[in-house]
Amino acid sequence: MKRSIEAATSTNYDMVIIGGGIFGVCAAWDAVLRGYKVAIIERNDWGGGASANCFKMVHGGIRYIQHGDIVRLRGSCAERSAFLRVAPHLVEPLPIVIPTYGHGMKGKEVLAAGMYAYDLLTLDRNRGIPDDERKIKWSKLIGRDDLMEQFPGLDSNGLTGGALFCDGQMYSPPRLVLAFLRSAVDAGVCALNYAEAVGLTMSDKQVTGVEVKDNLSGDKFTINARCVINSAGPWSEGILEKSLNLKLNPVGVFSRDACFIIKKQHVKNFALALQGQTSDPDALLSRPARHLFIVPWRDVNLVGVWHVVFKEKPDEYKMEEKELQTFIDEVNWSCPSLELSMDDVTMWNAGLVPFGDNDPEATNLSYGKRSRLIDHKTEHGISGLVSLVGIRYTMGRGDAQKAVNLAEQQLGENRSQPKTDWLPVYGGDFTSFETLQKDIQQKLDLPKDDSLLIKSVAHNYGSKYTELQSYQQRYTGVISNSAVLKAEVAHAIKEEMAYTLSDVVFRRTDLATAAHPGEAALIECAEIMAKELGWDENKNQQELINTNAALAFQTKGS
C-alpha cells in the first residue's frame, strides 16, 4: 500500500469514498471489483475510530428474536457468516453462556426456546466455512454443576444451569479493516490516510469531487470524481453541513459505546453474560435486564458494553474516571465475586455509533437498529452524493454494498455485483488455522514453544505471513516483552501505510491493543520507524510523547 497524492490528483475517479473505517473500506473493495476507478481517504489512520474501539464481537442477530425482527436477524447472521468465510484468520466463533435461574423469563425454558428458534432460522449459517473449528455450533443447555465449575463465582441461589450459544469475535478489528483495504488497493484503489475531506466540489447541483487537506504536510488538493460516498461515521453530517450547508432531518443521534479491558482472566473458555441494571424498551419479549458481557479475548477479558447518548462534537468524546467507576460498580453488582477495581482495568475502548430515539431523561435506552443510507439526489436534489452512517461493525460489508449500489444508480450504470461475502480478503486464503500455524512456525523459523507469537502472526497476517520474511533479514527477534516481531514494524511502514508510532502500536500490531506495552517496546518501535522513515531525534521524541499521551488517554481516563 503506497500513499500517492500524485495518483489521487491526476486521475478522474468514478467514486471517491470519505472515511476509512470498516464501512468505507468495504465500499472501496466492492466498488473496485465492479471495475470502477476508486479512491478512498481517511482524515486520521485506517480504522482508527469506532472500528478499532468496538467490543470485538461480530453479532449474528440472536437478540433480535426478542424484537420479532427476523429480517434483521437473518441479515446479521449472513454478515457474521461472510466475515467467517472471507477473513478466517481474524474472525472466529465465540461461545457465550447465559446463567439461568428458576423458571419464567430467567429460566432455561424461555432461553432454550429462543435459542433453538434462532438456530432453526439460521440453518445456513455455516455454508462455505470448511474448518469445523470456525463453524457456529448449535445452542445447548448446561447443567448447574458444569456451569459452577466454569464460573465458580456465580450467584448459586436459584441457579439451574445455563444456556450456551455461539456468536463471532474479531481478533483485531483494525487489522480486519486493513485486510479489506489491502485487498482493495491490490485491486487498484488509490488510498490515502491522513487525508481529510474539508469540502465537496460542485457544478450546479452535481458533486464533482472532494477538497482534501493532507494532515501530514498541510497541503490542500482536489480529487475529482463522478460520485462521492460519504461514510465518515459521526463526522458525516459535519462534512455535509460545512460543504453544502445541508442538515439532515432528523439530525443523527449517536451513542458513545464503551467497554474496558481487565488483566484478570475471570473467563477463559466461554464468554459470560450477566444481567445489568437497564432493560430493552424495544423488546416484545424481554428478560428483566439487558446483558453485560465478560469475554475472553487473547489473554485478557473484555467487559461491556455501555451506551451513553453523546451530543457533543465527535472529536470530544472521552471517558472520565468516575464514569468508568460506575461501570465497574455495575459489573460488581451483577457478579459481586468478581471484586473488580480500577486497578484491574488496563484500557478502555469507546466509539460513536448511531443511536435510537429516546426521551432526554430515559434510563432504558432504545438502540439504533439500522445504518442510515441517504440518496442525496432523491432527498435533496444533489447528484453524485451518497451518505452512509454505519450502525455497527458487523454490518460493514453488507451495508457498504448497498451504498455502492445506490452510487451506481446515480451513475446510471448496472454492473455485476461482486461476491464480497465469499471472496477471501488479504490473508484469508487458507483452510485450516492449525495447519497455517504449523507453516508459519517452520517458514518464519519461530520457536516451537512460543505459541503466543505463532498464533499472533497467524491471526494478523493469515496466508500472507510470507511477506514478513524479507523484513526478518533486517530486523531479527521480537519487540521487548511482547509477541510482536520487529519485522512486523518494518512491514507496517513499507506495506501498510504506517506513518506514526501510534499507527504501529495501536493498529498494525498487538503491542498496545490491550495495555501499555512498556516504554522499552515503544522506544524499539520508534527506532525502527526512525530508520525507515528518516526521523531525526526531535521527531522521534515527539512520536514517543504523542503515543504515550494516547495511551494515557485510554488507560487512565480523563
How would you describe what is shown here?
The protein has 558 residues and is of the alpha/beta class. The protein has 3 domains: 5-50 and 174-251 and 370-411, FAD/NAD(P)-binding domain; 61-170 and 253-354, D-Amino Acid Oxidase, subunit A, domain 2 (D-Amino Acid Oxidase, Chain A, domain 2, 2-Layer Sandwich); 433-556, Helicase, Ruva Protein, domain 3, CATH 1.10.8. It contains 17 helices and 17 strands. Strands 3, 4, 5, 6, 11, 12, 13, 14 and 15 form a 9-stranded mixed β-sheet that branches. Strand 13 (291-297) and strand 14 form a beta hairpin. Helix 2 (22-33) packs parallel to helix 6 (173-186) and helix 14 packs across helix 16. The longest helix is centred in the C-terminal third of the chain and has 20 residues, at 537-556. The model has no long low-confidence stretch (mean pLDDT 92).
